[in-house]
Amino acid sequence: MTWDQMMVATTRNNNLSTNNKFNIPDLKVGTLDVLVGLSDDLAKLDSFIEGVVKKVSQYMADVLEDSRDKVQENLLANGVDLVTYITRFQWDMAKYPIKQSLKNISDIISKQVSQIDNDLKARASAYNNLKGNLQNLERKNAGSLLTRSLADIVKKEDFVIDSEYLITMLVVVPKTSYADWQKTYETLSEMVVPRSTNLLFEDNDSGLFSVTLFRKAIDDFRHKARENKYTVRDFQYNEQEMNADKEEMTRLSTDKKKQFGPLVRWLKVNFSEAFITWIHIKALRVFVESVLRYGLPVNFQAMLLQPNKKNMKKLREVLNDLYKHLDSSAAAVIDSAVDIPGLNLSQQEYYPYVYYKIDCNLLDFK
């Protein structure tokens, strides 16, 4: 009867919303005192779980590097998309036996979601560290010739090695100054080996040249180079150090790949878990509030309305007309638009029917 009335008012006559019945089992009511306390606890738990659900989905987006389609297809509840799960909601009797008290069920859910929250922090922290270290190394191997690592650019044969008197230095020369460099490098200081310069590498702005000179002329050469706007890089050819850097990069990259699959699987499973517990908490809240508002025996119909976007305001009006007889104080709040002393309810969210919102847009793409 209630269902048919609502369908006529919101769907058959004017297509304001798409509706489904929301099945809540016969839960144990308990005492009034417990219900009043539980009402507050469930409100807090509801927003805590919503936060965790959003964190898990946002982290999934971060890990999948924000490729939107991939994220959406991994954010499922029990293997189906979220709207389908909610519209076909079935209470999980195995996990949350309805013979238990409402308080117990809410405690089980609270523990479960706190565990997911803690695990997420630990896993995210480990993966982010790895990702950060890898990015730092990658940054070292990119960027301009003035700052980037030279390990993957230079070769052993570019250097005079193990000489008591000679040393090969690396100089960054702006592209516009190549000709000047070739003309002047031999005379920048004493003891530069003639015809010893080679262009080893270039980026958009400059080139990396090697030049060989006598060790005792290093300081003078550096100084003169700086005056001519050439930059001498501090670099000693050391095969072990260079290999260690390369190995570290390979190791981090392999580790990241290894962790990626299991992390995405964990996020998928625990997103589903968290979302399912969230909808169970919504069901508990509807049950508790309906008993507190309408008394016993338990007699209410829970329904899911998906409003058609343009018609939100109209839908509220229709629902208000349909149900205002249930709760005169709500009608007064709505009609008078003032708070009634003793009713600490914000006008925006108080209706003559029990109402909770479920927002399935969980992702906040940057």
TrEMBL record:
Gene3D superfamilies: 3.30.70.100, subunit c (vma5p) of the yeast v-atpase, domain 2, Vacuolar atp synthase subunit c, domain 1
Domain of life: Eukaryota
Entries under InterPro entries matching the protein: ATPase_V1-cplx_csu (IPR004907), Vac_ATP_synth_c_sf (IPR036132)
Keyword Cell division: no
Keyword tRNA processing on entry: no
Keywords in alphabetical order: Acetylation, Hydrogen ion transport, Ion transport, Transport
Alphabetical list of Pfam families matching this protein: V-ATPase_C (PF03223)
Function according to Swiss-Prot or TrEMBL: Subunit of the V1 complex of vacuolar(H+)-ATPase (V-ATPase), a multisubunit enzyme composed of a peripheral complex (V1) that hydrolyzes ATP and a membrane integral complex (V0) that translocates protons. V-ATPase is responsible for acidifying and maintaining the pH of intracellular compartments and in some cell types, is targeted to the plasma membrane, where it is responsible for acidifying the extracellular environment. Subunit C is necessary for the assembly of the catalytic sector of the enzyme and is likely to have a specific function in its catalytic activity.
Oligomeric and partner information: V-ATPase is a heteromultimeric enzyme made up of two complexes: the ATP-hydrolytic V1 complex and the proton translocation V0 complex. The V1 complex consists of three catalytic AB heterodimers that form a heterohexamer, three peripheral stalks each consisting of EG heterodimers, one central rotor including subunits D and F, and the regulatory subunits C and H. The proton translocation complex V0 consists of the proton transport subunit a, a ring of proteolipid subunits c9c'', rotary subunit d, subunits e and f, and two accessory subunits.
Family note: Belongs to the V-ATPase C subunit family.
Protein name: V-type proton ATPase subunit C
Lineage, uppermost ranks: Eukaryota, Metazoa, Chordata, Craniata, Vertebrata
